[in-house]
Write a structure and sequence with these properties.
Elements lengths: L1 H22 L2 H7 L4 H17 L3 H10 L5 H11 L2 H8 L13 H22 L3 H19 L2 H10 L3 H10 L3 H53 L18 H5 L1 H4 L28 H6 L32 H13 L4 H16 L3 H42 L14 H5 L8 H7 L3
Helix pairs in contact: 1-3, 3-4, 3-5, 4-5, 5-6, 7-8, 8-9, 9-10, 10-11, 11-15, 11-16, 11-17, 16-17
Length: about 450
């Protein structure tokens, strides 16, 4: 009789659990079954599964582990979803139901899964746009290869991909792999040489874009002033937002020679001359003879073919109009992309330090000097543009006062100005600055 009652209770609970899952009433279910450990555990597991289906792996991981007893299989799946590989392998040792299991010992199955996960982590890391996150992900793959696969070579290869030369050398030396140490040194040398060319390109791209940015910025300010004066001025004229004021004509004249790499080049006028040859004269004797000579010059030769419109290629697509907001945005992107960000700065500093430590002082010094040349060139470009803009502003203020106008009413600021004005390259760490002052 007691077994029938229990069976009835279980059947009733399954109906309740189905209703809870359908309407996401897990919190209420946990309150109702607070004193029923078995049923409460099932609700916790169901909640974890619900969170997994919503791609909330980090939350699901906590819920699966908070269940009493913990649902290790669910925790593993949640850890894998959110990329918490340390938690995954910690619980994989407790669970005898590893993905891909079936043959061999638990250790061999974990190793096989570890290799698969390391490849997955590395692939996802390389797809990330943020350089710092990319390095962290690839370094995580190296840790998996080393800790769970015992594969030193693959681990060092991952560290080289993440530009972590010093860590790669440490791991190589720890396992007495001098061949891998050499691999780290060679990779750092190759990277340093590529940086030298990159710095030169950045100087050229930044200075050109910065000069044009100053011109387009004034065009956009003139457009904004005119918009304020008329009250109905449309900044986005002619689908390109190209607005030219009398004050900015000189800036537009220099467009053809000052376009940056981030904007469209100058437009040239092409004239096509079509010459028509002599037209032959046909001797028409009959309809048959006419049909032998079908051409656009006789009416019996059939219907005149319609000219098919030419397909528009990439060049026919909408181009960025000079002086438009689109050009301004393009220039801002060019300036930002050619200024060294924090992640790249860290790699450069680490590369210089590593090269000096492994006896490649000449290349390290060359890289150090080249970086500083780029830093000075970019910072000087910024200072020159800002000084020029300040001088022009002062001249405009004096002119307005002389003509009896209120200059404050004509002051205009574009949203991107503060961000662009703050772009700069910082100095190398003090330790490197001091060290290379002796070389």
């Amino acid at each position: 009789e007691s077994s029938e009652v229990a069976g009835s209770d279980d059947a009733h609970f399954e109906k309740c659990l189905s209703f809870i899952n359908e309407h996401k009433l897990h919190k209420l279910g946990l309150e109702l079954y607070e004193h029923h450990a078995h049923y409460k555990h099932k609700i916790m597991v169901a909640l974890g599964e619900q969170l997994l289906s919503e791609q909330k792996g980090d939350v699901a991981l906590t819920v699966f582990l908070a269940a009493n007893p913990s649902d290790i299989n669910g925790a593993k799946r949640a850890a894998r979803m959110c990329g918490d590989w340390k938690s995954y392998f910690a619980y994989a040792a407790e669970d005898d139901r590893d993905e891909g299991s079936g043959h061999g010992t638990k250790e061999s199955r974990i190793r096989a899964v570890a290799e698969s996960i390391a490849e997955e982590v590395c692939f996802k890391g390389e797809m990330k746009g943020d350089m710092q996150k990319k390095r962290e992900s690839i370094a995580g793959a190296a840790r998996i290869y080393l800790d769970y696969c015992g594969d030193v070579a693959s681990a060092v290869d991952m560290l080289i991909k993440a530009e972590m030369w010093s860590e790669g050398r440490r791991v190589s030396r720890l396992h007495s792999r001098e061949d891998l140490v050499k691999m780290c040194v060679d990779a750092a040398v190759s990277y340093g040489q590529k940086c030298l060319g990159d710095f030169e390109d950045r100087i050229s791209e930044f200075t050109k874009a910065n000069e044009r940015y100053g011109e387009v910025l004034e065009i956009r300010k003139d457009a904004k002033r005119e918009e304020g004066d008329t009250g109905a001025f449309d900044i986005h004229q002619d689908d390109g937002g190209s607005v030219f004021s009398m004050a900015s004509n000189a800036s537009n004249t220099s467009l053809q020679s000052n376009m940056s790499a981030g904007s469209v080049g100058s437009v040239t006028s092409v004239s096509s001359v079509i010459s028509a040859g002599a037209v032959s004269t046909f001797s028409i004797t009959s309809d048959v003879d006419v049909n032998k000579h079908k051409s656009k010059f006789n009416k019996l030769g059939g219907k005149k073919k319609k000219k098919r419109p030419k397909k528009k290629g990439p060049a026919a697509k909408r181009r960025i109009q000079p002086g438009s907001e689109e050009e301004l945005k393009s220039l801002v992107m060019t300036l930002k992309s050619n200024c060294i960000d924090e992640a790249y700065y860290d790699i450069i500093a680490e590369t210089i330090e590593f090269l000096a430590q492994v006896g490649r002082v000449s290349l390290a010094s060359q890289l150090f000097d080249s970086y500083n040349q780029m830093r000075v060139a970019i910072n000087d470009s910024q200072q020159n543009r800002l000084s020029k803009a300040k001088a022009e502003k002062e001249d405009a203020k004096k002119k307005a006062l002389k003509e009896g106008h209120d200059h404050d009413n004509t002051f205009v600021k574009i949203d991107c100005e503060d961000e662009v004005d703050a772009l700069c390259c910082k100095m190398m760490p003090d330790a490197l600055e001091q060290a290379f002052s002796f070389f």
